[in-house]
């Protein structure tokens, strides 16, 4: 725990300084009385030596005390900052927001190490002052401090019981439908992370292709390496997500997966590209209160009730290229209608990309950060 320095000790130091200065001011009359009868030259010499010695002692003590006091001000400010960060950390843990809690971990431990170092320096200076003529009050580092209420070792929630990487699993819905899915677990995954469900485009349907090329796993790895601040779920589709009934059961599935991976139920996002973009509209339409954010990419909503999209943040993205002319106007109009009904939807284009390259243009770090912030 952080060493504690007593502020009352410094009040005592100030009092000691005042006593020293009183003694110093009466020194001239003291030496003239003590050495009465001594020759003038000898008196001046002895008086000068005595006074200089005393001044050196006071100077040394005052320098040590001044350094200790200066560091103590810094110590108190850092301790206050540490308490504030610990409060934010505890709030994030209580909200099962592992990513936010993890962001505080390094800062907390840095502050703790800095406080230990400052306490050591302060007490070293006080020891130097105590070793001289003036006796300094002892400031003993404490083994604990009431200011530090968080654990000595900070973690951003309980670690998941799954190895990092891509896992192919299977879910059975309440009506018996079996859905295979890939779950992408980042390195050092913890409880409370956001969960993003991604529906792939038609070119990557089927069991074999989903195993060999998990579209979103490749994109996430390119941006975050193995340490993404969220978990990705990519269901396997053997036909196309835009086919009638293809998305049935996905809402039930992702609800259970969020529980299985101890994800944050308030930060569940659904997105999809091309045929998967079309399918993602169907998922939200069937589960209007399940998702915190919805991002369809180059895939329009077909036969959906747009009033079901007013409680979810929507960001629709298309390339703006002629290859996306079949979806772009419909997506933009859908966003306008959602907003007219009191929703929150935006439509964006990615100039320079086409329907075939939109995944790289749309799924950027900026977009992922927006998703998990909702």
Tell me what the structure shows.
- This protein is α/β, with parallel strands linked by helices and 374 residues long.
- It folds into 2 domains: 8-130; 165-373, Alpha/Beta hydrolase fold, catalytic domain (Rossmann fold), CATH 3.40.50.
- It has helices at 8-25, 27-34, 40-94, 98-130, 207-212, 215-224, 250-260, 275-286, 328-340, 358-362, 365-373, and strands at 165-172, 178-185, 195-199, 231-235, 268-273, 293-297, 313-318, 344-349.
- Strands 1-2-4-3-5-6-7-8 form an 8-stranded mixed β-sheet, with helices on both faces.
The total beta strand count reads: 8
Provide the CATH superfamily of the largest domain: Alpha/Beta hydrolase fold, catalytic domain
The name CATH uses for the topology of the largest domain is: Rossmann fold
Shape: elongated
Q: What would the average pLDDT be, to the nearest integer?
A: 77
Structural class: alpha/beta
Query: Strand arrangement, largest sheet?
Result: 1-2-4-3-5-6-7-8
Query: Into how many domains do the coordinates divide?
Result: 2
- Please, how many helices? 11
- List SSEs in N-to-C order: HHHHEEEHHEHEHEEHEHH
CATH class of the largest domain: Alpha Beta
Low-confidence parts, pLDDT < 50 over ≥5 residues? 1-11, 132-157, 205-213
> Could you say what the CATH architecture of the largest domain is?
3-Layer(aba) Sandwich
């Amino acid at each position: 725990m952080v060493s504690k320095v007593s502020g009352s000790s410094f009040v005592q130091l100030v009092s000691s300084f005042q006593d020293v200065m009183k003694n110093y001011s009466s020194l001239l009359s003291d030496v003239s009385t003590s050495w009465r009868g001594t020759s003038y030259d000898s008196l001046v010499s002895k008086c000068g030596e005595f006074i200089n010695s005393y001044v050196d002692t006071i100077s040394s003590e005052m320098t040590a005390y001044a350094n200790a006091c200066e560091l103590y001000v810094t110590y108190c400010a850092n301790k206050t900052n540490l308490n504030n960060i610990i409060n934010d950390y505890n709030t994030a843990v209580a909200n099962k927001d592992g990513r936010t809690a993890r962001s505080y971990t390094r800062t907390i431990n840095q502050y703790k190490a800095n406080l230990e170092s400052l306490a050591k320096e302060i007490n070293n200076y006080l020891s130097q002052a105590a070793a001289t003529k003036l006796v300094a009050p002892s400031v003993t580092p404490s083994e604990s401090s009431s200011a530090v209420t968080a654990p000595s070792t900070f973690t951003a929630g309980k670690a998941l019981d799954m190895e990092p990487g891509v896992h192919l699993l299977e879910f059975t819905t309440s009506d018996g439908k079996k859905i295979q899915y890939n779950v992408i677990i980042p390195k050092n995954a913890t409880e409370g992370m956001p969960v993003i469900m991604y529906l792939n485009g038609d070119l990557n349907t089927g069991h074999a292709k989903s195993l060999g090329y998990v579209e979103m796993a490749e994109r996430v790895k390119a941006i975050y390496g193995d340490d993404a601040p969220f978990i990705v779920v990519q269901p396997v589709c053997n036909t196309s997500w835009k086919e009638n009934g293809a998305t049935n059961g996905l809402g039930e599935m992702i609800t259970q997966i969020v529980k299985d991976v101890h994800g944050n139920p308030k930060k569940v996002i659904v997105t999809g590209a091309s045929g998967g973009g079309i399918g993602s509209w169907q998922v939200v339409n069937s589960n209007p209160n399940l998702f915190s954010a919805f991002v369809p990419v180059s895939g329009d909503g077909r036969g959906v009730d747009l009033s079901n999209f007013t409680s979810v943040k929507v960001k629709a993205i298309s390339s703006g290229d002629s290859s996306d002319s079949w979806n772009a106007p419909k997506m933009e109009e859908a966003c306008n209608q959602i907003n007219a009904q009191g929703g929150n939807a935006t439509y964006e284009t990615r100039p320079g990309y086409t329907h075939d390259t939109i995944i790289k243009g749309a799924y950027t770090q900026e977009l992922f950060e927006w998703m998990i912030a909702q």
